[in-house]
Amino acid sequence: MEYPSKLVEQAVEEISRLPGIGKKTALRLALHLLKQPESQTAALSESLKDLREQIKYCQTCHIIADTEDCTCQTPSRDTTVICVVEDTPDVLAIRNTGQYNGLFHVLGGRISPMDGIGPDQVKIDSLIARVKQSGSEVKEVILALSSTMEGDTTAFYITKMLKETGVKVSTIARGIPVGGELEYTDELTLGRSIATRTLFSAD
Amino acid sequence: MEYPSKLVEQAVEEISRLPGIGKKTALRLALHLLKQPESQTAALSESLKDLREQIKYCQTCHIIADTEDCTCQTPSRDTTVICVVEDTPDVLAIRNTGQYNGLFHVLGGRISPMDGIGPDQVKIDSLIARVKQSGSEVKEVILALSSTMEGDTTAFYITKMLKETGVKVSTIARGIPVGGELEYTDELTLGRSIATRTLFSAD
C-alpha cells in the first residue's frame, strides 16, 4: 500500500500490530484520528502510555490493579476459597456472573510444553505458598481453567502440588452450555457431561 | 462493565472512541498491550502523537503530506488534469488503480446543507483559484465524488463555479461494477448506465 505520508505509515505500522487489526483498518483509524480534535489523539496516546508504564499487579493474587494491594484485601470477600484462572479477562468474566465472592489467583498463562512454558513460568509456586501461608483459612481452591490439553495439564499439576496442603480442589463444571441443545453438542462435551452428571432434585 | 484498574478503564474509554471498536474489543486490545513488551506500547503511543501533531497538508492540493509541498509538485505528473476527491483515502484508492497520473485536489468533505456544511467549509475556492492561477495549463477537472445527493450537489456547484474558466469538467463513470451481473444491479445504477452508455468498438 502507498501512504500519503511517513507519519501515517508509521502510525499504520504500529496500529496494525494490534490483534485483529489489519493495515486497511489501521489506515482508516489513523485518518479518522486526523479528522478529530487533537485532544482526542493526545488523550488516547497518553492513556496507552500510562497504562503500560504505571500498571501494577497485585503481589498476592497477580490481578491487574492500580496499587500493589488490590481488592483481594477487601474484608467483604470470602477468604476461604481461591479461584484460579489463567488471565485477567477470566477474573472479569467470573466477577460479572455475580456467582462468586471469593478470592482470585491469576496464573498469567498455562503450562504448555509445546510453547516452552513450564510450571515455573506461571504463578503456581505463589499459589501454593499462598494456600500454605493462610494457615487453614483457605478451604477450597477452584480451578477455572480452559478446557484444553494445556488447561488440563495445568489443573493436574496444581492438584498434585496442593495435595500435601490438604485443601479441597475443585474444577468448574464442563457440560452443555445453558440454552444448548443436545443434538448440536459435540461428543466430547456430551460424554463428559454424562460422566460428571449431578443429582437433580425437583423440590 | 467492571474494570480491574482505573488505568485500564481510561485506556478502554479512549480506545473505544475509535470507529468500529466497542468496549469489549478495546479491553481486549488494552490487555493485549499489557502482555507485550513495553516498547511496543511506547511506539504506538508515540506514533499516534506524532501523527496528530506533525502532520501537514499540502497547501496546493490539501493532501496529507510530510511537508507543505507534496508529490503534486513532482515533474513526472500530468499537470493538465486535476482529479477532485472528497478525502485522502480516495486519493490512495485512485492512485492504486494505476490509471491516473494527474494532479489531485482534496476537498476535505462535500457540500451537505443537512449537516450545515456549505461550499465555504470545503476547499472549493482554492480549487477555482488553482485552475485560474495555472493560466490555461489545467485543461480538465475530473470530479471523482461519491454517487450520493451530497456528492452530486458538490459536483453541480463546482461545475457552475468553474464555468467561467472554460476548463473541461468531467465526472467518473457511474455504471455496473466490473464483474457485476445485470440482474443483481439496482435500478438506479442500471438506468444511469443505459443513459450514459459509451460507444463500443470491437477492434
Automatic annotation (TrEMBL), chains A, B:
Keyword Zinc: yes
Gene3D superfamilies: 3.40.1360.10, 6.10.250.240, RecR Domain 1 (1.10.8.420)
One GO term (biological process): DNA repair
GO molecular function, one term: zinc ion binding
Superkingdom field: Bacteria
Pfam families: RecR_C, RecR_HhH, Toprim_4
Keyword Metal-binding: yes
InterPro entries, per database record: DNA_Rcmb_RecR, Rcmb_RecR, TOPRIM_dom, TOPRIM_RecR
Keyword terms of this UniProt record: DNA damage, DNA recombination, DNA repair, Metal-binding, Zinc, Zinc-finger
Protein role: May play a role in DNA repair. It seems to be involved in an RecBC-independent recombinational process of DNA repair. It may act with RecF and RecO.
Family the UniProt entry places it in: Belongs to the RecR family.
Record-given protein name: Recombination protein RecR
Chain's gene name: recR
